[in-house]
């Protein structure tokens, strides 16, 4: 739920060793488009992510490589989502000798191991496995800048989606200790202070979790209940929770918010703080959780 998106150029040098090339695929899910990064200072570079195969992306990459008098030695893919890997085919058509690395790789690609280091002139990247947004998600520490390529676990604007909240929070805690400099996200503008943004993400998730607990601990006057003559109940559906917690947001955003609320409910259930009642209604088990 990002605010008004800032404008980003198609190609921008972000530091002596890092050039961002947009994937040419802007949308409400990808923000300004998928960020891909050309990393290094010499004739051989590393490329982080490849966009989703848009012609404008490969054209911009070729143009940038020509200007830099460089080639892509290896491409490192943060995770499996199509807007990060579908440009591999175009990349290999242009540069057949480029080696493709990914955690849990496709046939013909190489695996990325947790802690593996990739080095070219002017850039040393260390891969760290940080599942949450996706089970194969990797971030990369740029040693020369003490910077972090955050993939889709942390974005330049708004908040990220995730597959498993507990795992995601563990990865965010890990990421906050990896680097003290800037963050280069999978979508959106550069993060001036990566640890600060990661801390903000963790606090936001904890706040949402507490809001869910507090709402579950209140009476749901809008629900119908067969067990109460007043029609009031203390059980809630995910959408009923969304309508309370996101009441200041446009209704068009309520349905997309349900997925995140369900993730919170599943985490709280695993912690034995809430229970799943009949159908899709949830109830607080222990008021000491509030």
UniProtKB/TrEMBL annotation:
Tell me the segments the record calls region Disordered.
Answer: 214-234
Segments of skewed composition (Low complexity)? 215-234
- Any one of the GO BP annotations: secondary metabolite biosynthetic process
Q: Which UniProt keywords apply?
A: Hydrolase, Metal-binding, Zinc
Q: Where is the Metallo-beta-lactamase domain?
A: 33-187
Q: Which InterPro entries match?
A: LACTB2-like_MBL-fold (IPR047921), LACTB2_WH (IPR041516), Metallo-B-lactamas (IPR001279), RibonucZ/Hydroxyglut_hydro (IPR036866), Sec-metab_biosynth-thioest (IPR050662), WH-like_DNA-bd_sf (IPR036388)
Keyword flag Transcription: no
Among Pfam families, the record links this protein to: Lactamase_B, WHD_BLACT
Q: Isomerase as a keyword? A: no
Q: What is this protein called?
A: Metallo-beta-lactamase domain-containing protein
Organism of provenance:
Neoarthrinium moseri
């Amino acid at each position: 739920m990002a605010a008004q998106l800032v404008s980003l150029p198609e190609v921008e040098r972000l530091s002596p060793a890092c050039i961002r090339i947009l994937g040419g695929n802007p949308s409400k899910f990808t923000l300004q488009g998928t960020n891909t990064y050309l990393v290094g200072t010499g004739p051989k570079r590393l490329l982080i992510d490849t966009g989703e195969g848009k012609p404008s992306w490969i054209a911009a990459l070729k143009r940038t490589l020509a200007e830099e008098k460089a080639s892509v030695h290896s491409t490192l893919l943060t995770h499996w989502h199509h807007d990060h890997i579908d440009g591999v085919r175009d990349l290999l058509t242009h540069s057949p000798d480029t080696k493709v690395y990914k955690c849990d790789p496709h046939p013909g690609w190489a695996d990325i191991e947790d802690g593996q280091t990739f080095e070219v002139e002017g850039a040393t990247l260390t891969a760290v496995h940080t599942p949450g947004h996706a089970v194969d998600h990797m971030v990369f520490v740029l040693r020369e800048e003490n910077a972090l390529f955050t993939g889709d676990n942390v974005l330049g604007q708004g908040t990220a989606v995730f597959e498993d909240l507990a795992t995601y929070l563990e990865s965010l805690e890990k990421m906050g200790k990896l680097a003290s400099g800037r963050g280069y996200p999978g979508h959106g503008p550069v993060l001036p202070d990566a640890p600060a943004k990661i801390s903000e993400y963790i606090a936001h998730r904890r706040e949402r979790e507490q809001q869910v607990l507090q709402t579950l601990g209140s009476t749901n006057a809008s629900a119908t209940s067969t067990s109460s003559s007043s029609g009031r109940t203390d059980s809630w559906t995910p959408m009923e929770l969304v309508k309370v917690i996101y009441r200041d947001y446009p209704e068009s955003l309520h349905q997309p918010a349900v997925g995140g609320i369900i993730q919170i409910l599943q985490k709280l259930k695993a912690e034995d703080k809430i229970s799943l009642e009949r159908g899709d209604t949830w109830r607080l088990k222990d008021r000491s959780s509030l």
